[in-house]
Specification:
Chain A is of the alpha/beta class. Chain A contains 11 helices and 10 strands. Chain A has 2 domains: 181 residues, Rossmann fold; 65 residues, Alpha-Beta Plaits. By secondary structure, chain B is mainly alpha-helical. Classes of the chains: A alpha/beta, B mainly alpha.
């Protein structure tokens, strides 16, 4: 497995559970000694230079817990005391929406609040690199979106983020680049859109029309590969970036009246299926 | 050092937020001491006065041993809960060194052991025969030292228990049989050969001998052997634990 994370980007390791994402992450965090190979984080070795790296790297571990009865503010203060420099704890908790939970015990926090606290602990010493392992697993969609905003904000503040996720939507919405991991190997690396273009160039337009002349006109579009009809619903498949434009032009040209029109674009989920032959959820 | 004190203080606060833990660690040994003293104390005290005034050491030593053992058992439970919940792992991913994390827990246990002893002595003062000179300070030191040495059993058990659910029963299974050969209830000399051997290999015999001796006012010089044995025991078990200890 080999990859580089550029300064200031959000880089995602994506793949199913058991693919080796967390193992990779723990090697980068210095919590696990790799069997072989080399890892360099900010030009330092995670095991040998653990001390120096801890000052510059913030981590959030998968399924971590804190003491049940530790207060939010106590945890943040403890972490702050461990590093030579720390950001203002109150401001950080404010930013993460935890101000009114400062005196709450860890065990009373919701899943989203716990994750936000772990983000606070990862950011308390203003690290240059942030490592996030399965950040939003087990959270409801609303909490998930709130966390995504926080990660984007890290990038805005100039931090480099390496994260793992088995959620393709998360990777698509959050990551600048992703590496698709399976069975401990990286299958491909690229931007989410780039990977989709590379591996799933097909596009689909689904529209509804009662115009009987429509099929003949659609057949004549160069980018079209197949057309399927189901009652008045027409599914047009094709490849190349021009399919949608060409269909729209065709509709305009022949004044075909449609009652519904939507495009179905392939996503990372489809890329994964294409590359591995199975769905990421299996 | 600052981190150790900070973490220790934090763990103390967290510990007292759980009432059951406090009752178990401090309440039970105190209750055992007081009830037992009430039942048999007067008679024993009378005999002690008749036999020359030496204070009987059995009850305080039993209660002390219970304290030390409950400290071990509670250390095992805490470490296994921390490990199972990923708390140890999260702490390890900070500049805190593993030694600091574990030392903080040992300190918490020692502090509460001494506190329990103090409460026990204050509440049980009237059961101590009049005229008996109990070297309280020395005894406090002996108990702290003993608890510290015995806590190394806790490290070892904590290193091998798979889950927190096993921690308490396994700790009990290992610890309480040790009491049988500690010499507290029967003199070691009357035990069968193999139990005498076990008594010499296990730490509680030395612990009982030390606590008993100090309570009776024998002085440290008479118990250097016990101190050495307990120190050796601590060193060996801690070394083994640090080899096999799992953080997750």
């Amino acid at each position: 497995m080999s990859f580089d994370v550029e300064e200031g980007e959000i880089f995602g390791l994506i793949g199913p559970n058991g693919a080796g994402k967390t193992t990779t992450m723990e090697c980068v965090e210095g919590l696990r000694r790799p069997d072989r190979g080399t890892i360099s984080v900010l030009s330092l070795d995670p095991i040998r230079d653990a001390r120096a790296l801890q000052q510059k790297v913030g981590v959030q571990l998968q399924q971590a817990q804190l003491q049940k009865r530790i207060k939010v503010r106590e945890a943040v203060d403890l972490w702050a005391s461990l590093y030579p420099r720390a950001v203002d704890a109150d401001a950080l908790l404010e930013r993460l929406g935890l101000s009114d939970k400062r005196q709450a015990w860890f065990m009373t926090l919701s899943g989203g609040q716990k994750q936000r606290l772990f983000i606070a602990l990862a950011l308390i010493h203003d690290p240059d690199v942030v490592l996030l392992d399965e950040l939003t697993t087990g959270l409801d969609p609303q909490a998930r979106r709130a966390i995504w905003d926080l990660v984007r904000e890290m990038r805005t503040r100039g931090k480099t983020v390496l994260l793992t996720t088995h959620l393709m939507e998360e990777a698509e919405r959050l990551c600048d680049r992703v590496a698709i991991v399976e069975h401990g190997h990286i299958i491909d690396i690229g931007t989410p859109a780039g990977l989709v273009r590379r591996h799933c160039p097909g596009q689909t337009v689904v529209l509804e029309t009662t115009d009987a002349t429509a099929p003949g006109h659609f057949d004549a579009i160069p980018a079209v590969e197949s057309i399927a009809w189901l009652d008045s619903q027409c599914t047009i498949r094709g490849s190349g970036g021009d399919l949608v434009t060409q269909v729209i032009q065709c509709l305009a040209e022949h004044r075909i009246r449609v009652t519904n029109f939507k495009t179905e674009l392939p996503n990372l989920e489809d890329v994964f299926l294409t590359l591995t032959g199975h769905s990421i959820r299996e | 050092m600052r981190a150790l004190l900070r973490l220790t203080w934090l763990e103390i606060k967290i510990f007292v937020r759980e009432p059951m833990g406090v009752v178990g660690t401090m309440g039970i040994p105190v209750a055992v001491f007081l009830i037992a003293s009430r039942l048999v104390g007067p008679r024993v005290a009378r005999e002690a006065v008749q036999s020359g005034g030496a204070a009987t050491a059995m009850l305080p030593v039993l209660a002390s041993l219970l304290m030390a053992l409950s400290a071990v058992s509670s250390l095992v439970t805490i470490v296994s809960i921390y490990r199972e919940g990923g708390i140890l792992k999260r702490l390890r991913a900070t500049p805190l060194s593993p030694t600091v994390i574990l030392s903080a827990h040992v300190l918490v246990k020692l502090i509460f052991t001494v506190l329990t002893l103090a409460i026990m002595l204050i509440l049980g003062r009237r059961y101590i025969p009049p005229g008996a000179q109990v070297p309280v300070l020395s005894y406090g030191v002996a108990l702290t030292f003993t608890t510290w040495a015995i806590l190394s059993i806790g490290f070892l058990i904590a290193s091998i228990v798979p889950t927190a659910r096993f921690a308490q029963p396994l700790a009990a299974l290992i610890l309480y049989p040790m009491v049988a050969v500690s010499g507290l209830f029967f003199p070691v000399d009357v035990l069968p050969q193999w139990m005498r051997l076990a008594a010499r290999l296990l730490p509680l015999g030395y612990a009982v001998s030390l606590l008993d001796g100090i309570w009776r006012g024998e002085g440290w010089a008479a118990h250097l052997g016990d101190v050495a044995a307990l120190t050796l025991f601590f060193a060996v078990l801690t070394a083994v634990s640090s080899r096999v200890f799992r953080w997750e």
